């Protein structure tokens, strides 16, 4: 409901209960049309789902969509099949009770597809194990098998279910599917022997001929061409563009292996199917006495082989009627017409019993059996009822009578259970019940099923009475017993205007969905239907009503006349009136308060008292008028949709304001956080930097212990040893000074030193210079700086000033050389006082001299 409120202005309303004109059929159709044209094919009537066939693939059934609806409250998301399926599943698990989902609608409305989508939803979303996966696969693959044997192409639908199906899915206490059971109703056996123009027989016949391999067809005595078989050519459309019989055959064959059919079972099954085709090709002719005889014995031989029946017994059954009189049996020969009728009756009986056997075989594979399954824990079920809807054809036979009777009973069940649920809810909530005008179709159900007075009872009596029973005698009996019923009309009982549209052998019933005229109309079906109704009455219901938008299967086409007719016979307006029951909206106090509490300052953001008091404060603040609502024991009831819509509009506006406020608070919080993180980062960096400097200072000043001192020495030793290992053994690499010297000569930076070098060579002839560099000499007295050249040879060092040698120092007389540990470039040469050699005019003798080199790249070797 909440999802419907949010989306109401986009495309109509998602719940018909919220229509202002809920009693207007035009408003109902208009809302349905608007949503269908936007590909919104699902709409609620309370908890009932209305589905319109889109006749195209829509992106509504993906695994992500399944997960989206899984475990979500019913009205929180837009209407969907998955919402119905999930709601039934959750309620079943929480309350541990049984449920059923009733899917109804006319042929082509999408009932079978809806049933398959629900099965797929449970297969994907329910818990699973390896053993449970087998059950899940069998549940899913039972569909193609049943469709092959129970579905056919009709004028309205290329894959129309020609039988009613009720499937129980059994779940364990964990909610996992552990088994299943299928009940079938009213298989259309007449289709085996007759199809209208533009229709086909059941799919399995065409799949067998198209997909079966040559060896199989040869063993069955069949040819691939369907035109060879009488039962397949009456509709004149053996090939259908939208159906791929060959691929469907492969799917069915694979499904048989999963469902646990043995090869022998499959062999017998297709033998019976082939025998039906051979049976249809049997032709009769008259003998000399006017009795029917089989024209060609080849077909009957194939039937005898495939069915395992004696040839003589088959011939006798097709050409004679057996009459039992006390202890005697008398054979009465049949004429040609009756023989054809007997042939078709045998074909229908064979196919009908084969279909029943097939369903029972599938049930055996789905049964909750085996040591793994046999546990004492209780089980619950969800039932899926897929049954064709109300039918009104040009000629309505006994089958249409049974179908429409079934729909009358289901409509009665729907109204009774919905009305009962509404009355119980009002009673529990202490709200006065207001009588609702609706059509109660119990009177029609009684007309059909009443004991001794109903149509079925009268038909049984007529069939069992002695003498010949005819259509006219049956009609006379009906006129006698139920002729005064308001919903029963024959030509004899009708007024002059109505009489023209009813034949002498017809009768007309006024169903809840409209008038239907039947030609001469079975206790077996009544009993099975009664059993079905009892099963459904014991379970919690969910409903899906399927609607066909047009007769041509065109996407986007909305036929108002056709849909209005379906809305009527599906009883949707009746259901809406009952569901509305004077109040458009009802919700538990807790949920209502949780949604709308932001509209009242007293309840926002938290209400700590009882929810009922909070709701009362809330609606007084909003301004509800007394006639617009009622307060029950646990729920609030709102009468008018406009009241609810106004509340929802205020709620949306309030949400917008709250979102803006929340966004502003978030922005402020993020900005403050960013500033705080930036400041904290700076503080952390400063602390780490200071800590590193302090730790470094402390560690550098701390004396080494003996172990660390030994370790440092050992590390230095190993470093030097590794360095030695990497030095060349035969040649030395060029010194860095040499590289610098070469670069100086190449760049012309050495020219200023060339003149000085030439003067030095003249002063110190026949000497090989090892190194020459400009230095500054400091006097001992006064430390006056004097520029000199320091020249190193192989045996001596010379201090040279311009073109004059100031001092010569023999290497043999050196006491030592000291350097500063700072970056000032100071070098001290230690010589003995008595071994000093002066050359030329010196600046004063001394035993030690301080000579810091002048920083320069001008180095000579």
List its traits.
27 strands, alpha+beta, 7-stranded mixed β-sheet, elongated, disordered C terminus, PH-domain like, 27 helices
Layout of SSEs?
Blueprint: H1 2-6, H2 25-37, E1 42-45, E2 48-52, H3 63-69, H4 81-95, E3 99-105, H5 111-125, H6 130-150, E4 151-152, E5 160-161, E6 164-171, E7 177-185, H7 203-211, H8 214-220, H9 245-258, H10 263-280, E8 284-286, E9 292-294, H11 298-307, H12 311-319, E10 320-325, E11 328-333, H13 336-366, E12 380-388, H14 398-429, H15 442-449, H16 455-464, H17 471-482, E13 488-490, H18 496-499, E14 506-511, E15 514-519, H19 523-537, E16 540-547, H20 560-569, H21 572-580, E17 585-588, H22 589-596, H23 611-622, E18 629-631, E19 635-638, H24 641-701, H25 706-726, H26 736-747, H27 751-763, E20 771-778, E21 785-792, E22 796-801, E23 804-810, E24 816-819, E25 827-830, E26 837-838, E27 848-850
Helix pairs in contact: 4-5, 5-6, 6-7, 6-9, 6-13, 7-9, 10-11, 10-13, 14-15, 14-19, 14-21, 16-17, 22-23
Q: What's the CATH architecture name of the domain at 738-850?
A: Roll
What's the average pLDDT? 79
**Terminal CA distance:** 100 Å
Strand proportion: 15-25%
Kindly identify the CATH topology of the domain at 738-850. PH-domain like
| Approximate helicity band | 40-55%
**Overall geometric form:** elongated
Number of helices: 27
Q: What strand line-up does the widest sheet have?
A: 1-2-16-3-12-6-7
Q: Main beta sheet, described?
A: 7 strands, mixed
Task: Count all strands and give the number.
Answer: 27
CATH class of the domain at 738-850: Mainly Beta
Structural class: alpha+beta
The CATH homologous superfamily name of the domain at 738-850 equals: Pleckstrin-homology domain (PH domain)/Phosphotyrosine-binding domain (PTB)
What Rg is obtained from the alpha carbons, in whole angstroms?
52 Å
Query: Which residues sit in consecutive blocks of at least 5 with pLDDT less than 50?
Result: 370-374, 839-861
Region (Actin-binding): 529-551
GO biological process, one term: endocytosis
Pfam family, one: Myosin_TH1
Binding site for ATP: 105-112
């Amino acid at each position: 409901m909440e999802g419907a409120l949010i989306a109401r202005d986009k495309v109509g309303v998602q719940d018909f209960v919220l229509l202002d004109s809920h009693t207007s059929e035009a408003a109902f159709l208009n809302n349905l049309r608007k949503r269908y044209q936007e590909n919104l094919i699902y709409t609620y009537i309370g908890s009932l789902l209305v589905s319109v066939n889109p006749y195209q693939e829509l992106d509504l059934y993906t695994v992500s969509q399944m997960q989206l609806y899984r475990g979500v409250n019913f009205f929180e998301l837009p209407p969907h099949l998955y919402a119905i399926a999930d709601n039934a599943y959750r309620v079943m698990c929480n309350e541990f009770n049984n449920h059923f989902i009733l899917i109804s609608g006319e042929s082509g409305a999408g009932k079978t597809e809806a049933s398959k989508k629900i099965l797929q939803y449970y297969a994907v979303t329910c818990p699973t194990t390896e053993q449970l996966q087998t059950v899940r696969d069998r549940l899913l693959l039972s569909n193609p098998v049943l469709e092959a044997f129970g579905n056919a192409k009709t004028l309205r639908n290329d894959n129309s279910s020609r039988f009613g199906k009720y499937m129980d899915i059994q779940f364990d206490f964990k909610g996992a599917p552990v088994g299943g059971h299928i009940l079938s109703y009213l298989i259309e056996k007449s289709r085996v022997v007759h199809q209208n123009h533009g229709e086909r027989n059941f799919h399995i016949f065409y799949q067998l001929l198209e997909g079966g391999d040559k060896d199989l067809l040869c063993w069955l005595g069949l040819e691939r061409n369907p035109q060879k078989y009488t039962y397949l050519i009456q509709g004149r459309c053996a090939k259908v563009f939208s159906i791929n019989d060959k691929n469907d055959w492969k799917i069915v064959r694979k499904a048989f292996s999963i469902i646990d059919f043995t090869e022998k079972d499959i062999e017998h099954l297709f033998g019976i199917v082939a025998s039906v085709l051979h049976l249809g090709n049997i032709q009769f002719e008259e003998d000399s006495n006017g009795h029917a005889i089989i024209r060609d014995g080849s077909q009957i031989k194939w039937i005898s082989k495939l069915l395992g029946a004696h040839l003589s017994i088959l011939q006798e059954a097709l050409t004679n009627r057996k009459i039992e009189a006390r202890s005697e049996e008398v054979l009465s020969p049949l004429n040609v017409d009756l023989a054809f009728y007997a042939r078709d009756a045998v074909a229908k009986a064979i196919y009908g019993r084969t279909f029943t056997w097939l369903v029972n075989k599938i049930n055996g594979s789905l049964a909750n059996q085996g040591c793994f399954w046999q546990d004492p824990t209780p089980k619950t079920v969800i039932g899926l009822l897929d049954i064709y809807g109300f039918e009104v054809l040009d000629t309505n036979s006994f089958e249409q009578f049974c179908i429409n009777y079934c729909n009358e009973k289901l409509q009665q069940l729907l109204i009774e259970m919905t009305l009962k649920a509404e009355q119980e809810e009002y009673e529990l909530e202490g709200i006065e019940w207001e009588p609702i005008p609706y059509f109660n179709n119990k009177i029609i159900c009684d007309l059909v099923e009443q004991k001794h007075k109903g149509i079925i009872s009268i038909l049984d009596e007529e069939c069992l009475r002695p003498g010949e029973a005819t259509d006219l005698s049956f009609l006379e009996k009906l006129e006698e017993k139920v002729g005064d019923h308001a919903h029963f009309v024959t030509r004899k009982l009708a007024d002059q205007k109505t009489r023209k549209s009813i034949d002498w052998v017809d009768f007309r019933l006024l169903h809840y969905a409209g008038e239907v005229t039947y030609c001469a109309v079975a206790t077996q079906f009544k009993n099975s239907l009664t059993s079905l109704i009892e099963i459904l009455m014991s379970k919690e219901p969910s409903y899906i009503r399927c609607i066909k938008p047009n007769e041509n299967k065109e996407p986007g086409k909305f036929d108002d006349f056709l849909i209005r007719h379906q809305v009527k016979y599906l009883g949707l307006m009746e259901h809406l009136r009952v569901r509305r029951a004077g109040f458009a909206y009802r919700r538990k106090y807790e949920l209502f308060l949780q949604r709308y509490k932001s509209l009242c300052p007293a309840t926002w953001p938290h209400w700590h008292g009882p929810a009922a008091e909070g709701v009362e404060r809330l609606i007084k603040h909003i301004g509800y008028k007394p006639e617009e609502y009622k307060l029950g024991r646990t729920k609030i009831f709102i009468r008018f949709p406009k009241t609810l819509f106004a509340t929802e509009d205020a709620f949306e506006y309030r949400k917008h304001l709250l979102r803006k406020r929340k966004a502003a608070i978030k922005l402020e919080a993020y900005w403050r956080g960013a500033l705080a993180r930036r400041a904290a980062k700076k503080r952390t960096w400063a602390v780490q930097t200071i800590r590193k400097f302090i730790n470094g200072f402390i560690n550098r000043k701390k004396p080494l212990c003996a172990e660390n001192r030994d370790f440092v020495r050992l590390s230095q030793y190993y470093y030097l040893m590794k360095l030695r290992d990497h030095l060349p053994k035969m040649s030395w690499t060029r010194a860095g000074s040499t590289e610098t010297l070469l670069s100086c000569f190449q760049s012309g930076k050495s020219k200023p030193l060339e003149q000085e070098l030439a003067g030095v060579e003249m002063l110190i002839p026949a000497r090989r210079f090892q190194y020459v560099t400009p230095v500054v000499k400091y006097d001992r007295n006064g430390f006056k700086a004097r520029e000199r050249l320091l020249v190193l040879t192989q045996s001596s060092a010379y201090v040279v000033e311009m073109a004059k040698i100031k001092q010569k120092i023999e290497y043999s007389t050196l006491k030592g050389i000291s350097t500063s540990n700072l970056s000032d470039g100071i070098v001290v040469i230690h010589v003995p006082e008595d071994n000093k050699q002066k050359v030329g005019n010196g600046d004063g003798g001394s035993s030690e001299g301080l000579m810091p080199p002048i920083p320069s790249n001008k180095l000579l070797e």
